[in-house]
Amino acid sequence: MSHVRILNIDIDNLSMDELLHRLQSGGFVVTPNVEHLIKLQRDQEFYKLYQEADYRVCDSQVVFYSSRFLGHPLRERISGSDLFPCFYRYYQGDPSMTIFLLGAGPGVADRAREKINQRVQRNMVVAAYSPSFGFEQNKEECDRIVELINQSGATVLAIGVGAPKQEKWVAQYRQRLTGVKVFLAIGATIDFEAGQVSRAPRWMSNWGVEWVYRILQQPKRLWRRYLIDDLPFLWLLVQQRFGLYRNPMA
């Protein structure tokens, strides 16, 4: 499997079909975007678990264009919000693939569960849970979530509680989830699947300006991330292009 190095992360140069086929054997999938790449410059724990993930696929059109700028183009963008529906449709006829949804606000994960099961015409999403705010710091709730997932019999965990929280939670509890073989860190995808939040038009995603649509939807929550926190990425990318970038986690 080939890789493309962007800043301090090797991104797997896979097509969607190749990834879906490989997931038959299991694996932990993370989906690097600009926000992740910025966090990976300063969060040692996040950086370490990224090295331990089985698959790192390009979540962002901006990151996809960046690979071209660096002279090593990625074959395809595989965003979490595209991967998840492709995954459940790809495996809808495979009874061994059953999903637990973890994330989103109260009742949202349950609505997503109902809609997905209607689409695939079977009880593929066997259970769902919307955790409380700050749940990752509540050991009792985390233990309860582990028990719920194990009791559900799910072989797939789709977690959407934001980065790096979702990736860190999987890394911490993965070994206790005895029946789960596929781990998908999918961000806001549960909201999309439930119809709670609408996705940007396809043309905006293809042109790398989906972030504009998301800011307009949730300005108070997202304006700082996209307009301030992510800006250093461009400078870091230029440094890499000219051989000046140094990995701060090395």
From TrEMBL:
- One Pfam family of this chain: Glyco_tran_WecG
Looking up NCBIfam families in the UniProt record yields: wecG_tagA_cpsF
**GO molecular function annotation:** hexosyltransferase activity
State whether keyword Transferase applies. Answer: yes
Q: Decide whether keyword NAD is in the record.
A: no
Q: Keywords in alphabetical order, please.
A: Glycosyltransferase, Transferase
Protein name, entry field: Glycosyl transferase
List the source organism.
Prochlorothrix hollandica PCC 9006 = CALU 1027
